[in-house]
């Protein structure tokens, strides 16, 4: 039995549709007056529809496209349709942080649905054609249907995609039209209607709260704006459309696993953009990642044309590629690096009622939904028409990737062994999530052509157990995109980028230009110009280490501070009431090597602990997946520290507050929140910035200020923070929140932004030389110690310094340099290996930096991390400098800073860093710590937890949060 479409022209006569009403004093419900142009008279779904399939309206309570369906309503609709349709299967592939299900729907003919396992198996054979004969390839392609993946609303407040998904699902399972039935015979269509249920739930709740009786088309009204806790992001305020190559969150982990299982030919990703815009779709313009296959662009143009034709028939305006770039591989377009054709939709954001655009036309929400729907149907029809040829190009590319003619044939990424077991485990898990082939060296391997992360060509020997990721593999394009040290950008793009910066300060770059995973994770890696295939074996996970290695008469337990998990171990023990120590200098106790930053739990300290100390230590070690070693002796070998000496510091339990709310970057706040939850799992409080003046800071000994968009704290707030710090609090400020603290008028921090340091630039230069000298192991002056005559010559740090520029010249120079923004580059930074903030960090770490404040430090400010790594110059290069200087001191500067004798400064590791940006950044401070009264101020110039994946700098933040209250404050703030 058939029925005609019950969606009479979807007339958004919002009066009845919104089911909103208000009773006047006389008890009469007032309906809104008419609004000319608001009605959308085109039906979303036309044609013969099966009466056995419930309409969306019968499930939702309103016509699809009239308002934004909630996640619960979407789930309800999928369940209802699954019960009655033989054209669909609903698969739950993940659950969000808040426990909401994520689904994809497989839609096809009943015959194809009964054969999905074979279809996936065939697709996997094409994706990895090792030993696949040409005849078998042909047979597989001949029998395979077209496979598409349609993904909607990864940004929860970009609503129209999910409602278009509901309309598409209904049309495909209910339509009795011949073209749809033929399409389903030839296709498997996978629809993910909602990739971010937590964000959409937040967004739809806000809509409900702001919805009125009368429709509102004014974009300045709160209905069309977002609260601080925007629905764009997930529970932890992460932008999930940056997470596909990072795999931090369950939502994207589930999508990646599912896409990798299916290997679809096509992926569309439905988004929204500014409400005054029209509709963007299609392929990206430069900069485009060079690891993409040429067949992606070849077929993309075909899809573009068919989609444009479909939109032309509806008389809808659109454009392609004007601002869309595809350099960063972490969007949903990551699938293109696997060989999937990816198409982005960007529909003008309407938000239910409709929007009055500049031309005077009201664009309804239903129209926005319709554009997404029409585009989706057009794309899957194009795929069905060209599917076989697309499969043939796909397999051709995969065969090349595994051959000796692969563009990546002579390249292997080597990740060197580390004692930071947690960090290496996270890296391996991410590589396995992406489906990469992993190997390990079975014995040391000598390599003659390798490049390290500082860009140096080296000859070296890879230790046994080195993790090897050969680029000659089926997923070689994605391997290269994630692990290559530099994503190259064409000269033409760089010329245009520089022109834009000089003309008006705008940029072509939509995202970071550096994202190398080994650098972000802080793992030492090499790019080896060779396909290493000897003395290797497939990777196997290391044997699970016992949580505790006990010993009779043990006086203490020790966990290695090189492992990031040691910080969480200490934090959780303190929360359980266990007195915990940390060592600031390496030692050996009872044959156990104890590194700087290791955690010690002694029986002496916990003599009156109420519970079973051994059981609590073991339980905590299991939770953190670490091994604790018992030691039965407290005497350090030789002159190494003994237990009980000053190097074993007692920690104080952190009581943490984090500022959030208006004026605070939700992304940075969410990253810090997620870091504490995922790495520590300890209690902490979130303080609303709007109520800061009413907050009793005495409850906390650690306050974190995430990056802010603008100066949020006024005089009263800064005064309260100052008093709290002087009483013993640890203040940690990050990126955008730093300038209000370093402003001289605030009288909080002695650190200055570079623009405020020009009057004393020579003192900053001398302080820098002093830092360098304090870290040396060899001093020429020692040879003069024992002479009896007065010394007539002393070497001063300013002897080799060139005369500094005047304040006016420095200001002029800085204004010029500041134009050339740092475009999310990874740079080298040196760490003070005697500072507690750098526990677990090697001498040089990668730091991701963007347009962050440039900080200057001197005097009593301790600089734990500075930008730039000193490298000793080649002897011939140094002789050349000396010769050029003749009898004068050899004076070499980078920006404001004098370089030490025989040293060069290495800065850029990956990404776009203009020479001007490099000069401005060099030798500035990344991480500082200073005492103030009984407390301390810790400043990060940039965001240490970028997208939950910059583990090298995240460790520094964890150190500050967990150890600061015990190591940096003179007294612990008492609890009320």
From TrEMBL:
Residues spanning the signal sequence: 1-24
Lineage, top ranks: Bacteria, Pseudomonadati, Pseudomonadota, Gammaproteobacteria, Alteromonadales
Family per similarity comment: Belongs to the peptidase M14 family.
InterPro entries per UniProt: Class_I_gatase-like, Peptidase_M14
Name of protein: Peptidase M14 domain-containing protein
Cofactor entry: Zn(2+)
Domain (Peptidase M14): residue spans on this chain: 82-289
Entry keyword set: Hydrolase, Metalloprotease, Protease, Signal, Zinc
Any one Gene Ontology molecular-function term assigned to this protein's record: zinc ion binding
Species assigned in the record: Pseudoalteromonas luteoviolacea S4054
């Amino acid at each position: 039995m058939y029925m005609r479409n019950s969606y009479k022209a979807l007339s958004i006569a919002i009066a009845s549709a919104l089911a909103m009403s208000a009773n006047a004093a006389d008890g009469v419900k007032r309906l809104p007056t008419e609004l000319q142009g608001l009605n959308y008279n085109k039906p979303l779904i036309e044609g013969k529809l099966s009466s056995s399939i419930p309409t969306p309206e019968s499930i939702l309570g309103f016509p699809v496209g009239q308002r934004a369906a909630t996640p619960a309503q979407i789930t309800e609709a999928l369940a209802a349709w699954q019960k009655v349709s033989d054209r669909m299967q609903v698969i739950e592939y993940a659950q969000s942080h808040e426990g909401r299900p994520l689904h994809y729907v497989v839609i096809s003919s009943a015959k194809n649905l009964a054969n999905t396992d074979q279809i996936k198996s065939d697709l996997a054979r094409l994706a990895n054609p090792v030993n696949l004969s040409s005849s078998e390839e042909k047979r597989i392609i001949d029998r395979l249907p077209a496979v598409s993946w349609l993904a909607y609303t990864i940004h929860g407040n970009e609503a129209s995609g999910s409602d278009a998904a509901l309309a598409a699902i209904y049309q495909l399972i209910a339509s009795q039209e011949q073209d749809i039935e033929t399409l389903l015979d030839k296709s498997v269509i996978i629809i993910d209607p909602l990739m971010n249920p937590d964000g959409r739930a937040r967004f739809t709740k806000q809509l409900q709260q702001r919805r009125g009786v009368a429709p509102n088309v004014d974009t300045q009204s709160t209905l069309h704006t977002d609260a601080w806790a925007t629905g764009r992001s997930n529970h932890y305020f992460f932008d999930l459309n940056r997470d596909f190559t990072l795999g931090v969150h369950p939502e994207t982990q589930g999508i990646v696993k599912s896409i990798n299982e299916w290997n679809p030919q096509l992926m569309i990703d439905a988004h929204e953009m500014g409400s005054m815009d029209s509709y963007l779709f299609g392929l990206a313009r430069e900069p485009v990642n060079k690891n993409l296959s040429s067949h992606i662009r070849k077929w993309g143009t075909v899809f573009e044309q068919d989609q444009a034709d479909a939109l032309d028939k509806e008389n809808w305006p659109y454009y392609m590629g004007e601002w869309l770039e595809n350099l960063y591989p972490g969007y949903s377009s990551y699938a293109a690096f696997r060989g999937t054709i990816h198409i982005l939709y960007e529909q003008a954001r309407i938000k239910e009622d409709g929007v009055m655009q500049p031309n005077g036309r009201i664009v309804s929400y239903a129209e926005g939904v319709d554009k997404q729907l029409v585009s989706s149907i057009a794309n899957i029809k194009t795929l069905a028409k060209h599917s076989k040829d697309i499969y043939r190009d796909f397999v051709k590319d995969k065969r090349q990737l595994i051959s000796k003619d692969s563009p990546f044939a002579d390249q292997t990424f080597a990740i060197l062994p580390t004692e930071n077991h947690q960090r290496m485990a996270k890296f391996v898990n991410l590589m396995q999530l992406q489906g990469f082939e992993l190997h390990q060296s079975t014995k040391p391997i000598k390599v003659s052509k390798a490049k390290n992360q500082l860009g140096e060509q080296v000859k070296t020997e890879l230790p046994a157990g080195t993790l090897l990721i050969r680029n000659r593999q089926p997923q070689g394009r994605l391997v290269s995109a994630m692990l290559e040290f530099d994503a190259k950008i064409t000269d033409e793009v760089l010329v245009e980028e520089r022109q834009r910066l000089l003309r008006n300060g705008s940029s072509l770059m939509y995202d970071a230009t550096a994202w190398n995973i080994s650098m972000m994770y802080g793992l030492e890696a090499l790019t080896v110009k060779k396909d290493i295939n000897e003395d290797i074996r497939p990777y196997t996970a290391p044997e699970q280490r016992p949580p505790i290695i006990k010993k009779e008469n043990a006086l203490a337990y020790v966990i290695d501070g090189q492992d990031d998990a040691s910080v969480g171990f200490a934090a959780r023990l303190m929360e359980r009431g266990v007195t915990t120590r940390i060592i600031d200098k390496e030692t050996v106790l009872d044959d156990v090597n104890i590194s700087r930053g290791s955690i010690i739990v002694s029986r002496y300290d916990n003599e009156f602990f109420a519970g079973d100390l051994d059981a609590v230590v073991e339980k905590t070690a299991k939770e953190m997946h670490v091994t604790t070693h018992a030691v039965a002796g407290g005497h350090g070998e030789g002159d190494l520290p003994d237990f009980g000496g000053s190097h074993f510091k007692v920690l104080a339990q952190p009581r943490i507050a984090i500022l959030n709310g208006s004026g605070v970057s939700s992304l940075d706040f969410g990253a810090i929140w997620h870091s504490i939850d995922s790495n520590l799992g300890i209690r902490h409080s979130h303080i609303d910035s709007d109520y800061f003046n009413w907050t009793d800071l005495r409850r906390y000994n650690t306050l974190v200020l995430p990056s802010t968009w603008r100066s949020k704290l006024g005089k009263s707030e800064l005064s309260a923070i100052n008093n709290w710090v002087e009483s013993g609090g640890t203040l940690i400020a990050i990126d955008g929140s730093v300038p209000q603290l370093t402003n001289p008028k605030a009288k909080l921090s002695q650190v200055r932004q570079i623009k405020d340091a020009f009057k004393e630039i020579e003192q900053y230069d001398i302080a820098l030389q002093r830092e360098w000298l304090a870290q040396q192991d060899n001093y020429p002056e020692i040879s003069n110690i024992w002479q009896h005559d007065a010394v007539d010559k002393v070497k001063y740090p300013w002897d080799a310094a060139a005369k500094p520029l005047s304040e006016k010249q420095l200001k002029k120079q800085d204004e010029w340099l500041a134009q050339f923004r740092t475009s999310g580059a990874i740079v080298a930074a040196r760490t003070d290996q005697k500072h507690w903030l750098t526990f677990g960090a090697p001498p040089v770490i990668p730091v991701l930096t963007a347009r962050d404040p440039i900080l200057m430090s001197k005097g009593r400010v301790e600089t734990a991390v500075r930008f730039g790594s000193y490298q000793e110059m080649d002897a011939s290069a140094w002789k050349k400098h000396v010769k050029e200087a003749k009898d004068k001191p050899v004076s070499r500067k980078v920006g404001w800073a004098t370089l030490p004798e025989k040293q060069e400064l290495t800065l850029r590791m990956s990404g776009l860093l203009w020479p001007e940006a490099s000069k401005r950044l060099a030798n500035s401070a990344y991480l500082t710590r200073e005492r103030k009264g009984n407390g301390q101020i810790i400043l990060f110039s940039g965001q240490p937890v970028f997208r939950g994946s910059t583990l090298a700098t995240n460790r520094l933040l964890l150190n500050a949060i967990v150890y600061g209250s015990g190591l940096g404050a003179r007294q612990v703030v008492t609890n009320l």
